[in-house]
Amino acid sequence: MSILRYVMVACLTLMVFSKAAHAAGYVDNLDVRPDIGYGYAASKDGKRGMGYHAGVRILSAVRSISNPTPDKRWGLEISSVSPFESKGALKHEKYTAVGIVLEQVLPARIVATIGTIGYRGVDQNKSNPFGVIYGFAWEPQITEKMRFSAGLRAETIYDTSTISRYSLTAGLTFTVF
Q: Which pLDDT tens digits describe the chain residue by residue (177 residues)?
């Protein structure tokens, strides 16, 4: 089974679970956030350069017992990551990244994120490392069902040589229900 099938099954499962939990009153809403980013990457073996990521997050907001406002989100991230894409002299290391992310909405619409990601090498890259993602974003409301997101994303990819990425990211969050 290809990784695309796993991703599709995971997305559908998350949506069905979120819809059922929403009907039961446990989950407040379902958000879909496509985003892109560009930034600097460095590895322990001396590679340095600029690269990109592009992907989508499917997030389910939940209410805490002490706070009726949905301030916590959990969900799935699916991205294409290329840490060194813009440097012609460096080996192109491309990954498809899939993982679980947790978000906390702080005051002033600041969002803190942390998650664990599994990376699958694509093209000439045959490695399948794991990694950690973390960051902060500002997420102002545009309309009732849409928010803009701009922030700083940091990733650590534990490949044969650990890669650290720091990028600026932007996206739109759409509330499905």
A: 455 565 566 656 666 665 666 565 556 678 889 999 999 999 888 888 888 899 999 988 776 666 666 678 889 999 988 888 755 534 567 888 999 999 998 888 899 999 999 988 777 767 888 999 999 999 999 998 899 999 999 999 998 888 899 999 999 999 887
How many angstroms from the chain centroid is the CA of residue 86?
21
Q: And the tokens for 76?
A: 């799935």
Is residue 99 a contact partner of residue 91, using CB atoms and an 8 Å limit? no
Tell me the C-alpha distance between 46 and 35, whole Å. 28
Exposure of 113 in the CB half-sphere (CA atoms within 13 A): 30
Q: Domains in the chain, start-ordered, CATH in brackets?
A: 3-175 (2.40.160.20)
**pTM of the predicted structure, to 2 decimals:** 0.78
